[in-house]
Specification:
Chain A is an all-alpha fold. Chain A is built from 6 helices and no strands. In chain A, helix 3 packs antiparallel against helix 5. Chain B is rod-shaped. Helices cover 35% and strands 0% of the residues of chain B. The chains are: A mainly alpha, B mainly alpha. Chains A and B meet through helix 1, helix 2, helix 3, helix 4 and helix 5 of A and helix 1 of B.
Chain lengths: 173, 68
């Protein structure tokens, strides 16, 4: 099913806003995550962990889910398809992987924020909390890879796409 | 970020099923290498991997146990 120009442009606008917004939100999260590694000031640590939790739950997760759903709609609603081209397929797999890790990671971030927000948590306890830097840097790398794939659209059709193309050519309707 | 329009791949009708492009093979190889390195680092560091690893254990009271 192909989308008509109006709905296609709307879906593309939503997809671009969510995808680019996701990268921007992760950049903001990374700054706070870096602060949990570089600072030992209790006030900074408390604010950073609480802020990270707010950014993840209020911005990153909604944007990630929106980007994933709108990406699937865009793929299915245009000639690109979801499984026809390697760059679309790999983008989909990377987005699903990043979203899954993100959803699992929200539990950890929520736990860290709860501990940090507790007034009875001592400065020593705060300093003993680990950061989520490996995951957030890894997430940013994956988002950059998806961005590059979507901008360059490297050639390469899957076997499924090739069969679909052949079937369409032999049976034009 | 799927956009409409543009090249859909290939300049002429292919004779047989296309093979996997080189960039896909190289990317997959790089991904496997990175995954193996990360697993080795985790094994060498002796750490578990999962949500609990981030919250640490020293000095955190049981009342903060988020898993319960």
């Amino acid at each position: 099913m192909k989308l008509r120009p109006g709905p296609r442009k709307l879906a593309l606008s939503v997809h671009l806003a969510a995808s680019i917004g996701w990268i921007g939100a992760v950049a903001a999260y990374l700054v706070l995550d870096m602060a949990t590694v570089t600072s030992d000031h209790p006030g900074t640590l408390r604010a950073a962990y609480v802020g990270m939790n707010l950014i993840v739950t209020s911005v990153i997760v909604p944007l990630a889910v929106t980007a994933l759903i709108s990406g699937i709609i865009m793929s299915l609603g245009t000639h690109w398809g979801l499984l026809r081209h390697y760059w679309v397929l790999i983008s989909l797999l990377l987005t699903v992987f990043a979203t899954t890790v993100l959803l699992v990671e929200t539990r950890t971030i929520d736990a860290l924020a709860s501990i940090a927000a507790d007034p009875s948590t001592t400065a020593e306890d705060l300093a003993s909390l680990n950061s989520t830097l490996v995951h957030s840097v890894g997430g940013m790398v994956i988002l950059m890879a998806i961005l590059i794939l979507n901008v360059y659209k490297p050639r390469g059709m899957t076997r499924y796409g090739w069969r679909q193309q052949r079937a369409a050519r032999s049976d034009p309707r | 970020m799927v956009q409409s329009g543009g090249d859909i791949g290939g300049s002429g009708p292919p004779q047989g099923p296309p093979g996997m492009p080189r960039w896909v093979k190289l990317s997959a190889l790089a991904a496997v290498v990175v995954a193996v390195v990360l697993i080795l680092i985790m094994v060498v560091a002796g750490g578990e991997h999962g949500p609990g690893m981030h919250t640490g254990t020293s000095g955190i009271r049981n009342s903060h146990d988020w898993r319960g």
